[in-house]
Design goal:
The complex is a heterodimer of chains A (154) and B (430).
Chain A lengths: L3 H11 L9 H12 L4 H11 L3 H8 L13 E6 L2 H5 L2 H12 L12 E6 L11 E3 L2 E3 L4 H8 L4
Parallel strand pairs in A: 1-2
Antiparallel strand pairs in A: 1-3, 3-4
Helix pairs in contact in A: 1-2, 2-3, 3-4
Chain B lengths: L22 H6 L4 H10 L2 H10 L12 H6 L12 E6 L8 H8 L1 H15 L3 E6 L4 H16 L15 E6 L9 H8 L23 E5 H13 L1 H7 L7 E8 L5 E6 L4 H8 L9 E5 L21 H4 L8 E6 L4 H15 L5 H18 L7 H11 L9 H15 L1 H9 L7
Parallel strand pairs in B: 1-2, 1-4, 2-3, 5-8
Antiparallel strand pairs in B: 5-6, 7-8
Helix pairs in contact in B: 2-6, 2-9, 3-6, 5-6, 5-7, 6-9, 9-10, 13-14, 13-16, 14-15, 15-16
The chains are: A alpha+beta (154), B alpha/beta (430).
Protein backbone atom coordinates (compact mmCIF):
# COMPACT_ATOMS: atom_id res chain seq x y z
CA UNK A 1 0.00 0.00 0.00
CA UNK A 2 1.24 3.47 -0.85
CA UNK A 3 1.02 5.91 2.04
CA UNK A 4 -1.07 9.08 1.92
CA UNK A 5 2.11 11.18 1.79
CA UNK A 6 3.52 9.13 -1.08
CA UNK A 7 0.30 9.43 -3.05
CA UNK A 8 0.06 13.14 -2.38
CA UNK A 9 3.64 13.74 -3.53
CA UNK A 10 3.13 11.62 -6.66
CA UNK A 11 -0.05 13.49 -7.51
CA UNK A 12 1.68 16.86 -7.13
CA UNK A 13 4.39 15.76 -9.57
CA UNK A 14 1.76 14.30 -11.91
CA UNK A 15 0.28 17.76 -12.48
CA UNK A 16 3.49 18.65 -14.36
CA UNK A 17 2.76 16.21 -17.18
CA UNK A 18 -0.12 15.77 -19.63
CA UNK A 19 0.01 11.96 -19.35
CA UNK A 20 -0.21 9.94 -16.18
CA UNK A 21 2.52 7.39 -16.95
CA UNK A 22 5.00 10.23 -17.45
CA UNK A 23 5.28 10.55 -13.69
CA UNK A 24 6.45 6.92 -13.34
CA UNK A 25 10.14 7.72 -12.72
CA UNK A 26 9.27 10.45 -10.22
CA UNK A 27 6.87 8.04 -8.49
CA UNK A 28 9.56 5.36 -8.20
CA UNK A 29 11.96 7.92 -6.74
CA UNK A 30 9.36 9.26 -4.31
CA UNK A 31 8.65 5.80 -2.93
CA UNK A 32 12.33 4.83 -2.92
CA UNK A 33 13.25 7.94 -0.93
CA UNK A 34 11.01 6.72 1.90
CA UNK A 35 11.63 2.97 1.68
CA UNK A 36 15.23 2.77 0.45
CA UNK A 37 14.42 0.60 -2.57
CA UNK A 38 11.61 -0.62 -4.82
CA UNK A 39 10.30 -4.04 -3.79
CA UNK A 40 8.00 -6.10 -6.02
CA UNK A 41 5.15 -5.05 -3.77
CA UNK A 42 6.00 -1.34 -4.09
CA UNK A 43 6.30 -1.78 -7.83
CA UNK A 44 2.84 -3.37 -8.06
CA UNK A 45 1.32 -0.64 -5.88
CA UNK A 46 2.82 2.20 -7.91
CA UNK A 47 1.81 0.54 -11.19
CA UNK A 48 -1.76 0.10 -9.96
CA UNK A 49 -1.88 3.71 -8.81
CA UNK A 50 -0.70 4.97 -12.21
CA UNK A 51 -2.86 2.59 -14.21
CA UNK A 52 0.16 0.83 -15.72
CA UNK A 53 1.00 -2.87 -15.86
CA UNK A 54 3.69 -3.92 -13.35
CA UNK A 55 5.73 -5.27 -16.28
CA UNK A 56 5.71 -1.90 -18.05
CA UNK A 57 6.73 -0.13 -14.88
CA UNK A 58 9.46 -2.69 -14.19
CA UNK A 59 10.91 -2.16 -17.67
CA UNK A 60 11.31 1.49 -16.66
CA UNK A 61 12.52 0.77 -13.12
CA UNK A 62 15.24 -1.63 -14.27
CA UNK A 63 16.52 0.77 -16.94
CA UNK A 64 17.49 3.58 -14.58
CA UNK A 65 20.49 2.99 -12.35
CA UNK A 66 19.32 5.34 -9.59
CA UNK A 67 16.25 3.15 -9.04
CA UNK A 68 17.15 0.20 -6.81
CA UNK A 69 15.21 -3.03 -7.38
CA UNK A 70 17.16 -4.78 -4.64
CA UNK A 71 17.55 -3.75 -1.01
CA UNK A 72 20.41 -1.34 -0.32
CA UNK A 73 22.13 -0.24 2.88
CA UNK A 74 21.31 2.92 4.80
CA UNK A 75 23.91 4.82 2.77
CA UNK A 76 24.64 4.17 -0.89
CA UNK A 77 28.20 4.94 -1.94
CA UNK A 78 28.56 5.69 -5.65
CA UNK A 79 32.17 5.79 -6.80
CA UNK A 80 32.92 7.53 -10.08
CA UNK A 81 34.74 5.15 -12.43
CA UNK A 82 34.79 7.38 -15.52
CA UNK A 83 37.93 8.46 -17.28
CA UNK A 84 39.17 11.48 -15.30
CA UNK A 85 38.73 9.71 -11.98
CA UNK A 86 40.28 6.59 -13.50
CA UNK A 87 43.39 8.58 -14.48
CA UNK A 88 43.55 10.14 -11.02
CA UNK A 89 43.42 6.87 -9.09
CA UNK A 90 39.96 5.32 -9.15
CA UNK A 91 41.40 1.79 -8.82
CA UNK A 92 43.18 2.69 -5.58
CA UNK A 93 40.04 4.31 -4.17
CA UNK A 94 37.88 1.37 -5.12
CA UNK A 95 40.34 -1.13 -3.61
CA UNK A 96 40.49 0.83 -0.39
CA UNK A 97 36.71 1.01 -0.10
CA UNK A 98 36.36 -2.70 -0.84
CA UNK A 99 38.95 -3.66 1.75
CA UNK A 100 37.61 -1.33 4.41
CA UNK A 101 33.98 -2.31 3.92
CA UNK A 102 34.63 -5.94 3.01
CA UNK A 103 32.36 -5.74 -0.05
CA UNK A 104 32.62 -5.41 -3.83
CA UNK A 105 30.55 -3.28 -6.20
CA UNK A 106 26.91 -4.29 -6.02
CA UNK A 107 27.13 -5.56 -2.43
CA UNK A 108 25.92 -4.32 0.95
CA UNK A 109 27.78 -4.56 4.27
CA UNK A 110 26.36 -7.19 6.67
CA UNK A 111 25.38 -4.43 9.14
CA UNK A 112 23.32 -2.86 6.34
CA UNK A 113 25.22 0.41 6.68
CA UNK A 114 26.72 0.81 3.18
CA UNK A 115 26.05 -0.34 -0.37
CA UNK A 116 28.89 0.12 -2.88
CA UNK A 117 28.12 0.98 -6.52
CA UNK A 118 29.98 2.39 -9.52
CA UNK A 119 28.68 5.58 -11.12
CA UNK A 120 29.24 7.53 -14.32
CA UNK A 121 31.26 10.76 -14.21
CA UNK A 122 29.92 12.97 -11.40
CA UNK A 123 31.01 16.19 -13.09
CA UNK A 124 33.71 16.70 -10.51
CA UNK A 125 36.67 16.01 -12.82
CA UNK A 126 38.77 18.95 -11.61
CA UNK A 127 38.67 17.42 -8.10
CA UNK A 128 39.06 13.76 -9.04
CA UNK A 129 38.76 11.13 -7.72
CA UNK A 130 35.20 11.61 -6.50
CA UNK A 131 32.30 9.70 -4.97
CA UNK A 132 28.86 10.36 -3.58
CA UNK A 133 27.51 9.06 -0.31
CA UNK A 134 23.75 9.44 -0.38
CA UNK A 135 23.15 12.97 -1.66
CA UNK A 136 26.61 14.27 -0.69
CA UNK A 137 29.52 14.72 -3.08
CA UNK A 138 33.05 14.01 -1.84
CA UNK A 139 36.06 14.91 -3.95
CA UNK A 140 39.89 14.96 -4.04
CA UNK A 141 39.71 11.56 -2.37
CA UNK A 142 42.52 9.57 -0.84
CA UNK A 143 42.26 6.62 1.53
CA UNK A 144 42.64 8.77 4.65
CA UNK A 145 39.98 11.22 3.53
CA UNK A 146 37.61 8.35 2.70
CA UNK A 147 38.02 6.91 6.18
CA UNK A 148 37.24 10.28 7.77
CA UNK A 149 34.20 10.88 5.55
CA UNK A 150 32.66 7.46 6.09
CA UNK A 151 32.64 8.09 9.85
CA UNK A 152 29.97 10.75 9.21
CA UNK A 153 27.50 8.12 8.05
CA UNK A 154 26.16 5.87 10.79
CA UNK B 1 43.55 52.69 -26.54
CA UNK B 2 43.18 50.53 -23.48
CA UNK B 3 42.87 46.83 -24.05
CA UNK B 4 39.46 45.73 -22.91
CA UNK B 5 39.44 43.08 -20.22
CA UNK B 6 38.35 39.73 -21.53
CA UNK B 7 34.58 39.62 -21.23
CA UNK B 8 33.01 36.84 -19.20
CA UNK B 9 29.26 37.22 -19.62
CA UNK B 10 28.46 33.75 -18.27
CA UNK B 11 30.66 33.64 -15.18
CA UNK B 12 31.73 37.25 -14.56
CA UNK B 13 29.09 37.81 -11.88
CA UNK B 14 29.72 34.61 -9.97
CA UNK B 15 30.86 34.91 -6.39
CA UNK B 16 34.35 33.76 -5.44
CA UNK B 17 32.96 31.78 -2.48
CA UNK B 18 30.75 29.70 -4.78
CA UNK B 19 27.46 30.75 -3.18
CA UNK B 20 24.62 31.25 -5.67
CA UNK B 21 23.28 34.62 -6.78
CA UNK B 22 19.73 34.90 -5.47
CA UNK B 23 17.13 36.86 -7.40
CA UNK B 24 17.92 40.34 -6.01
CA UNK B 25 21.66 39.76 -6.52
CA UNK B 26 21.08 38.56 -10.08
CA UNK B 27 18.96 41.64 -10.83
CA UNK B 28 21.57 43.87 -9.20
CA UNK B 29 24.12 42.42 -11.63
CA UNK B 30 21.88 43.36 -14.56
CA UNK B 31 19.81 40.19 -14.67
CA UNK B 32 16.25 39.87 -16.02
CA UNK B 33 16.79 42.86 -18.32
CA UNK B 34 16.50 40.60 -21.37
CA UNK B 35 13.04 39.34 -20.50
CA UNK B 36 11.87 42.90 -19.81
CA UNK B 37 13.18 43.90 -23.22
CA UNK B 38 11.41 41.15 -25.14
CA UNK B 39 8.22 41.01 -23.06
CA UNK B 40 7.63 44.76 -23.12
CA UNK B 41 7.08 44.45 -26.84
CA UNK B 42 10.63 45.40 -27.71
CA UNK B 43 11.14 42.27 -29.81
CA UNK B 44 8.85 39.76 -31.51
CA UNK B 45 9.41 36.02 -31.16
CA UNK B 46 10.79 35.94 -34.70
CA UNK B 47 13.10 38.85 -33.95
CA UNK B 48 14.61 37.03 -30.95
CA UNK B 49 15.20 33.91 -33.04
CA UNK B 50 16.69 36.03 -35.80
CA UNK B 51 19.07 37.74 -33.37
CA UNK B 52 20.22 34.39 -31.94
CA UNK B 53 20.71 33.00 -35.44
CA UNK B 54 22.61 36.12 -36.44
CA UNK B 55 24.78 35.78 -33.33
CA UNK B 56 25.70 32.32 -34.64
CA UNK B 57 25.11 30.74 -31.24
CA UNK B 58 25.91 27.04 -31.61
CA UNK B 59 24.82 24.25 -29.27
CA UNK B 60 27.17 24.01 -26.29
CA UNK B 61 26.12 20.44 -25.49
CA UNK B 62 28.74 19.43 -28.03
CA UNK B 63 26.97 19.03 -31.35
CA UNK B 64 27.32 22.69 -32.30
CA UNK B 65 24.07 22.97 -34.21
CA UNK B 66 22.82 26.53 -34.80
CA UNK B 67 20.47 27.39 -31.93
CA UNK B 68 18.52 30.02 -33.88
CA UNK B 69 18.10 27.56 -36.74
CA UNK B 70 16.75 24.92 -34.37
CA UNK B 71 14.24 27.41 -32.94
CA UNK B 72 13.15 28.48 -36.42
CA UNK B 73 11.85 24.94 -37.16
CA UNK B 74 9.15 25.32 -34.49
CA UNK B 75 5.74 26.17 -35.94
CA UNK B 76 4.46 29.49 -34.52
CA UNK B 77 1.09 31.22 -34.40
CA UNK B 78 -2.51 30.35 -33.69
CA UNK B 79 -2.61 27.30 -35.95
CA UNK B 80 0.54 25.72 -34.50
CA UNK B 81 0.17 22.45 -32.55
CA UNK B 82 -0.36 23.08 -28.87
CA UNK B 83 1.35 23.02 -26.43
CA UNK B 84 4.96 23.71 -27.43
CA UNK B 85 7.71 22.55 -25.08
CA UNK B 86 11.18 23.80 -24.22
CA UNK B 87 13.45 21.27 -22.54
CA UNK B 88 16.75 22.14 -20.92
CA UNK B 89 19.26 19.34 -21.30
CA UNK B 90 20.92 19.52 -17.87
CA UNK B 91 21.83 15.84 -17.94
CA UNK B 92 25.56 16.54 -17.84
CA UNK B 93 27.02 13.02 -17.97
CA UNK B 94 29.67 13.17 -20.68
CA UNK B 95 32.75 11.96 -18.79
CA UNK B 96 35.24 14.74 -18.23
CA UNK B 97 32.55 17.41 -18.44
CA UNK B 98 31.73 19.64 -15.47
CA UNK B 99 30.69 22.99 -16.93
CA UNK B 100 26.88 23.06 -16.67
CA UNK B 101 27.08 22.16 -12.98
CA UNK B 102 28.90 25.44 -12.32
CA UNK B 103 26.32 27.47 -14.25
CA UNK B 104 23.39 25.90 -12.40
CA UNK B 105 24.93 25.92 -8.93
CA UNK B 106 26.29 29.46 -8.96
CA UNK B 107 23.95 31.45 -11.20
CA UNK B 108 20.64 29.56 -11.52
CA UNK B 109 18.68 32.69 -12.51
CA UNK B 110 20.85 33.19 -15.60
CA UNK B 111 19.62 29.81 -16.86
CA UNK B 112 16.02 30.59 -15.91
CA UNK B 113 16.16 33.90 -17.77
CA UNK B 114 17.56 32.05 -20.80
CA UNK B 115 14.65 29.61 -20.56
CA UNK B 116 12.10 32.43 -20.50
CA UNK B 117 13.63 34.25 -23.48
CA UNK B 118 13.98 31.03 -25.49
CA UNK B 119 10.46 30.02 -24.47
CA UNK B 120 9.16 33.36 -25.72
CA UNK B 121 10.99 32.91 -29.03
CA UNK B 122 9.46 29.50 -29.75
CA UNK B 123 6.13 30.35 -28.07
CA UNK B 124 6.62 27.57 -25.54
CA UNK B 125 3.89 26.91 -23.01
CA UNK B 126 5.75 24.54 -20.73
CA UNK B 127 9.47 24.15 -20.00
CA UNK B 128 11.32 21.38 -18.18
CA UNK B 129 14.81 21.33 -16.79
CA UNK B 130 15.94 17.71 -17.18
CA UNK B 131 18.58 17.50 -14.47
CA UNK B 132 20.69 14.45 -13.68
CA UNK B 133 19.69 12.99 -10.33
CA UNK B 134 23.19 13.13 -8.88
CA UNK B 135 23.36 16.94 -9.13
CA UNK B 136 21.72 17.41 -5.74
CA UNK B 137 23.16 20.87 -5.01
CA UNK B 138 22.09 22.18 -8.42
CA UNK B 139 18.62 20.72 -7.78
CA UNK B 140 18.28 22.59 -4.48
CA UNK B 141 19.47 25.87 -5.91
CA UNK B 142 17.38 25.63 -9.08
CA UNK B 143 14.25 24.77 -7.07
CA UNK B 144 14.73 27.83 -4.90
CA UNK B 145 15.45 30.06 -7.90
CA UNK B 146 12.38 28.80 -9.79
CA UNK B 147 10.22 29.59 -6.74
CA UNK B 148 11.73 33.09 -6.55
CA UNK B 149 11.07 33.65 -10.26
CA UNK B 150 7.41 32.59 -9.87
CA UNK B 151 7.04 34.99 -6.92
CA UNK B 152 8.32 37.87 -9.05
CA UNK B 153 5.94 36.88 -11.90
CA UNK B 154 8.85 36.05 -14.20
CA UNK B 155 7.21 32.63 -14.58
CA UNK B 156 3.59 31.54 -14.64
CA UNK B 157 0.59 33.21 -16.21
CA UNK B 158 0.84 36.52 -18.04
CA UNK B 159 4.49 37.23 -17.23
CA UNK B 160 4.97 40.92 -16.31
CA UNK B 161 1.59 41.66 -17.86
CA UNK B 162 2.86 40.75 -21.32
CA UNK B 163 0.25 38.15 -22.16
CA UNK B 164 2.99 35.50 -22.43
CA UNK B 165 2.71 32.55 -20.01
CA UNK B 166 5.30 29.90 -19.23
CA UNK B 167 5.48 27.19 -16.60
CA UNK B 168 8.87 25.75 -15.65
CA UNK B 169 9.29 22.38 -13.95
CA UNK B 170 12.42 20.71 -12.64
CA UNK B 171 12.65 17.00 -13.47
CA UNK B 172 15.26 14.91 -11.66
CA UNK B 173 16.48 12.02 -13.77
CA UNK B 174 16.71 8.39 -12.73
CA UNK B 175 20.20 8.11 -14.25
CA UNK B 176 21.84 6.69 -17.41
CA UNK B 177 24.04 8.53 -19.92
CA UNK B 178 21.52 7.72 -22.67
CA UNK B 179 19.23 10.44 -21.30
CA UNK B 180 21.65 13.05 -22.63
CA UNK B 181 20.74 12.01 -26.18
CA UNK B 182 18.02 14.43 -27.27
CA UNK B 183 15.29 11.92 -28.12
CA UNK B 184 16.29 9.49 -25.36
CA UNK B 185 15.81 12.40 -23.00
CA UNK B 186 12.32 13.04 -24.37
CA UNK B 187 11.38 9.39 -23.82
CA UNK B 188 12.71 9.60 -20.26
CA UNK B 189 10.58 12.71 -19.64
CA UNK B 190 7.57 10.75 -20.87
CA UNK B 191 8.31 8.14 -18.20
CA UNK B 192 9.73 5.56 -20.61
CA UNK B 193 13.10 3.89 -21.13
CA UNK B 194 15.55 6.39 -22.61
CA UNK B 195 15.92 4.66 -25.99
CA UNK B 196 16.58 7.07 -28.85
CA UNK B 197 13.85 7.75 -31.40
CA UNK B 198 14.03 7.40 -35.14
CA UNK B 199 14.72 10.73 -36.86
CA UNK B 200 13.14 12.41 -38.79
CA UNK B 201 10.80 13.75 -37.58
CA UNK B 202 12.99 15.97 -35.44
CA UNK B 203 11.85 17.23 -32.02
CA UNK B 204 11.11 20.85 -33.10
CA UNK B 205 8.28 19.37 -35.18
CA UNK B 206 7.39 16.17 -33.28
CA UNK B 207 8.95 16.04 -29.84
CA UNK B 208 7.79 15.62 -26.26
CA UNK B 209 4.35 13.95 -26.12
CA UNK B 210 4.29 14.35 -29.91
CA UNK B 211 4.37 18.16 -29.74
CA UNK B 212 6.93 20.69 -31.05
CA UNK B 213 9.88 20.68 -28.67
CA UNK B 214 13.22 22.40 -28.51
CA UNK B 215 15.97 20.76 -26.47
CA UNK B 216 18.83 23.09 -25.58
CA UNK B 217 21.91 22.65 -23.41
CA UNK B 218 22.36 24.68 -20.20
CA UNK B 219 25.37 26.69 -21.41
CA UNK B 220 23.61 27.46 -24.70
CA UNK B 221 20.58 28.93 -22.93
CA UNK B 222 22.78 30.91 -20.54
CA UNK B 223 24.20 32.78 -23.56
CA UNK B 224 20.74 33.86 -24.76
CA UNK B 225 19.95 36.76 -22.36
CA UNK B 226 23.35 38.30 -23.12
CA UNK B 227 22.71 38.13 -26.87
CA UNK B 228 19.34 39.85 -26.39
CA UNK B 229 20.90 42.55 -24.19
CA UNK B 230 24.04 43.24 -26.22
CA UNK B 231 23.19 42.15 -29.74
CA UNK B 232 24.41 39.60 -32.24
CA UNK B 233 27.43 41.61 -33.37
CA UNK B 234 28.74 41.88 -29.81
CA UNK B 235 28.39 38.11 -29.33
CA UNK B 236 30.17 37.33 -32.59
CA UNK B 237 32.95 39.70 -31.55
CA UNK B 238 33.62 37.75 -28.35
CA UNK B 239 35.09 34.83 -30.26
CA UNK B 240 38.69 34.78 -31.40
CA UNK B 241 37.93 32.86 -34.57
CA UNK B 242 34.92 32.73 -36.85
CA UNK B 243 32.97 31.01 -34.08
CA UNK B 244 31.01 33.23 -31.71
CA UNK B 245 30.85 33.92 -28.02
CA UNK B 246 32.77 32.75 -25.04
CA UNK B 247 33.12 29.11 -24.00
CA UNK B 248 33.48 27.36 -20.70
CA UNK B 249 36.67 25.37 -21.24
CA UNK B 250 37.99 22.89 -18.74
CA UNK B 251 40.84 20.50 -18.11
CA UNK B 252 41.18 17.37 -15.99
CA UNK B 253 43.82 14.67 -15.64
CA UNK B 254 47.39 15.10 -14.41
CA UNK B 255 47.70 18.82 -15.11
CA UNK B 256 48.95 21.29 -12.52
CA UNK B 257 45.68 23.19 -12.11
CA UNK B 258 42.61 21.23 -13.21
CA UNK B 259 39.67 23.59 -13.59
CA UNK B 260 37.18 25.52 -15.64
CA UNK B 261 37.63 28.88 -17.38
CA UNK B 262 35.36 31.10 -19.46
CA UNK B 263 37.49 32.19 -22.41
CA UNK B 264 36.95 33.57 -25.90
CA UNK B 265 35.69 30.89 -28.28
CA UNK B 266 38.62 29.71 -30.37
CA UNK B 267 41.24 29.76 -27.61
CA UNK B 268 43.78 27.13 -28.63
CA UNK B 269 44.05 23.76 -26.94
CA UNK B 270 47.67 24.60 -26.07
CA UNK B 271 46.73 27.82 -24.32
CA UNK B 272 44.07 26.06 -22.25
CA UNK B 273 46.45 23.25 -21.37
CA UNK B 274 49.64 25.21 -20.76
CA UNK B 275 48.49 28.61 -19.50
CA UNK B 276 45.19 28.00 -17.77
CA UNK B 277 45.72 24.44 -16.56
CA UNK B 278 49.38 25.22 -15.84
CA UNK B 279 50.76 22.42 -18.01
CA UNK B 280 51.55 18.91 -16.88
CA UNK B 281 52.31 18.02 -13.27
CA UNK B 282 55.96 17.55 -12.39
CA UNK B 283 57.22 14.13 -13.39
CA UNK B 284 54.69 13.41 -16.11
CA UNK B 285 54.71 14.23 -19.82
CA UNK B 286 51.88 15.08 -22.17
CA UNK B 287 50.75 12.30 -24.53
CA UNK B 288 47.40 13.44 -25.91
CA UNK B 289 43.98 14.71 -24.98
CA UNK B 290 40.30 14.19 -25.60
CA UNK B 291 39.18 17.77 -26.36
CA UNK B 292 35.61 17.71 -25.06
CA UNK B 293 34.44 14.57 -23.36
CA UNK B 294 35.01 10.92 -24.18
CA UNK B 295 33.07 10.99 -27.46
CA UNK B 296 35.65 13.18 -29.20
CA UNK B 297 38.73 11.95 -31.09
CA UNK B 298 42.16 12.22 -29.42
CA UNK B 299 44.53 14.97 -30.47
CA UNK B 300 48.29 14.93 -29.85
CA UNK B 301 51.14 17.46 -29.67
CA UNK B 302 51.10 18.50 -33.33
CA UNK B 303 47.42 19.53 -33.14
CA UNK B 304 47.69 21.52 -29.90
CA UNK B 305 47.74 24.89 -31.63
CA UNK B 306 44.28 24.27 -33.07
CA UNK B 307 41.64 26.72 -31.87
CA UNK B 308 39.11 24.88 -29.71
CA UNK B 309 35.96 25.70 -31.64
CA UNK B 310 33.33 23.96 -33.74
CA UNK B 311 34.93 24.93 -37.07
CA UNK B 312 38.65 24.43 -36.45
CA UNK B 313 38.72 21.16 -34.51
CA UNK B 314 37.21 19.03 -37.33
CA UNK B 315 40.02 20.28 -39.61
CA UNK B 316 42.46 18.78 -37.10
CA UNK B 317 40.58 15.47 -37.18
CA UNK B 318 38.68 15.95 -33.96
CA UNK B 319 35.77 17.89 -32.44
CA UNK B 320 35.41 20.41 -29.66
CA UNK B 321 32.56 18.49 -28.04
CA UNK B 322 31.81 19.97 -24.64
CA UNK B 323 35.15 21.85 -24.55
CA UNK B 324 36.34 20.22 -21.33
CA UNK B 325 39.54 18.34 -22.14
CA UNK B 326 40.74 15.10 -20.58
CA UNK B 327 44.52 14.94 -20.59
CA UNK B 328 46.46 11.70 -21.04
CA UNK B 329 49.97 11.60 -19.58
CA UNK B 330 52.89 9.23 -20.14
CA UNK B 331 52.44 7.46 -16.79
CA UNK B 332 48.90 6.40 -17.71
CA UNK B 333 48.38 3.40 -19.97
CA UNK B 334 46.56 4.39 -23.18
CA UNK B 335 45.23 0.83 -23.61
CA UNK B 336 43.84 0.81 -20.07
CA UNK B 337 42.32 4.22 -20.65
CA UNK B 338 40.70 3.13 -23.90
CA UNK B 339 39.36 0.07 -22.07
CA UNK B 340 37.85 2.37 -19.44
CA UNK B 341 36.10 4.32 -22.21
CA UNK B 342 34.69 1.19 -23.86
CA UNK B 343 33.43 -0.13 -20.52
CA UNK B 344 31.67 3.20 -19.97
CA UNK B 345 30.02 3.21 -23.41
CA UNK B 346 29.02 -0.45 -23.14
CA UNK B 347 27.49 -0.05 -19.70
CA UNK B 348 25.63 3.15 -20.55
CA UNK B 349 24.27 2.10 -23.94
CA UNK B 350 20.53 1.47 -24.02
CA UNK B 351 21.31 -1.84 -25.76
CA UNK B 352 18.93 -1.13 -28.59
CA UNK B 353 21.03 -1.57 -31.74
CA UNK B 354 23.68 -4.09 -32.69
CA UNK B 355 26.84 -1.96 -32.87
CA UNK B 356 26.31 -1.10 -29.20
CA UNK B 357 25.09 -4.31 -27.64
CA UNK B 358 27.40 -6.53 -29.61
CA UNK B 359 30.36 -4.37 -30.53
CA UNK B 360 31.09 -2.31 -27.41
CA UNK B 361 31.30 -5.31 -25.10
CA UNK B 362 33.50 -7.13 -27.57
CA UNK B 363 35.92 -4.20 -27.77
CA UNK B 364 35.97 -3.90 -24.00
CA UNK B 365 36.81 -7.60 -23.59
CA UNK B 366 39.64 -7.41 -26.14
CA UNK B 367 41.14 -4.40 -24.37
CA UNK B 368 40.74 -6.05 -20.98
CA UNK B 369 42.54 -9.18 -22.20
CA UNK B 370 45.37 -7.02 -23.61
CA UNK B 371 45.71 -5.34 -20.22
CA UNK B 372 45.92 -8.74 -18.55
CA UNK B 373 48.63 -9.92 -20.94
CA UNK B 374 46.42 -12.15 -23.07
CA UNK B 375 46.35 -9.95 -26.19
CA UNK B 376 46.66 -11.86 -29.47
CA UNK B 377 48.00 -10.91 -32.91
CA UNK B 378 45.02 -9.61 -34.89
CA UNK B 379 43.38 -7.94 -31.88
CA UNK B 380 44.28 -4.46 -33.09
CA UNK B 381 42.73 -5.18 -36.49
CA UNK B 382 39.63 -6.55 -34.77
CA UNK B 383 39.28 -3.36 -32.75
CA UNK B 384 39.75 -1.24 -35.87
CA UNK B 385 37.13 -3.17 -37.83
CA UNK B 386 34.70 -2.94 -34.91
CA UNK B 387 35.11 0.83 -34.74
CA UNK B 388 34.33 1.06 -38.47
CA UNK B 389 31.08 -0.78 -37.93
CA UNK B 390 29.93 1.73 -35.32
CA UNK B 391 29.88 4.52 -37.91
CA UNK B 392 26.94 6.89 -38.30
CA UNK B 393 24.27 5.30 -40.47
CA UNK B 394 24.71 1.92 -38.80
CA UNK B 395 23.21 3.10 -35.53
CA UNK B 396 20.10 4.78 -34.17
CA UNK B 397 21.96 7.47 -32.26
CA UNK B 398 25.44 8.87 -31.83
CA UNK B 399 26.53 6.76 -28.84
CA UNK B 400 28.41 4.07 -30.78
CA UNK B 401 29.91 6.54 -33.32
CA UNK B 402 31.02 8.55 -30.28
CA UNK B 403 32.75 5.45 -28.92
CA UNK B 404 34.47 4.82 -32.26
CA UNK B 405 36.16 8.23 -32.27
CA UNK B 406 38.45 7.79 -29.25
CA UNK B 407 39.05 4.11 -30.12
CA UNK B 408 40.14 4.80 -33.70
CA UNK B 409 42.36 7.71 -32.73
CA UNK B 410 43.89 5.77 -29.82
CA UNK B 411 44.81 3.03 -32.31
CA UNK B 412 46.24 5.67 -34.62
CA UNK B 413 48.33 7.66 -32.15
CA UNK B 414 49.25 5.00 -29.58
CA UNK B 415 49.61 1.97 -31.83
CA UNK B 416 53.10 1.00 -30.57
CA UNK B 417 51.69 0.79 -27.04
CA UNK B 418 48.90 -1.52 -28.19
CA UNK B 419 51.48 -3.66 -30.01
CA UNK B 420 53.71 -3.83 -26.94
CA UNK B 421 50.82 -5.16 -24.84
CA UNK B 422 50.50 -8.05 -27.30
CA UNK B 423 54.19 -8.79 -27.93
CA UNK B 424 55.24 -8.49 -24.26
CA UNK B 425 52.15 -10.35 -22.97
CA UNK B 426 51.68 -7.71 -20.28
CA UNK B 427 50.75 -4.11 -19.65
CA UNK B 428 54.05 -2.19 -19.54
CA UNK B 429 52.50 0.28 -17.08
CA UNK B 430 51.62 -2.33 -14.46
Amino acid sequence: MLTTEEISEIETEATHYPRREAVSIDALKIVQRRRGWISDESLRDIAAHLGMSPTDLDSVATFYNLIFRRPVGRHVIMVCDSVSCWIMGHDRIRKHLSERLGIEFGETTPDNRFTLLPIVCLGCCDHAPAMMVGADLHSDLDPRKIDARLEEYK
Amino acid sequence: MMTALAEKPLTGNMRPDGSPLDLPAYEQAGGYRAIRKVLSGGMTAQAVTHEVKDADLRGRGGAGFSTGMKWSFVPLGKDAPNPTYLVVNADEMEPGTFKDRLLMEQDPHQLIEGVIVAGFAIEADIAYIFLRGEYTLAADRLSRAIAEAYERHYLGKNILGSGYSLDLHLHLSGGRYMCGEETGLLNALEGKRANPRSKPPFPPVVGLFGKPTVVNNVETLCCVPHIVNNGAAWFRGLGRTKDSGTKLYGASGKVKRPGLWELPMGTTAREILEEHAGGMRDGVKFRGLLPGGVSTPFIVEEQLDTPMDFTSMPKAGSRMGTGTMIVLDDQTCPVGLTGNLMRFFGRESCGFCTPCWSGLGWAERILQSMEEGHGKPGDIEKLASQAKMWAPGNTFCSLAPGAADPLETALKYFRPEFERHISEHRCPWR
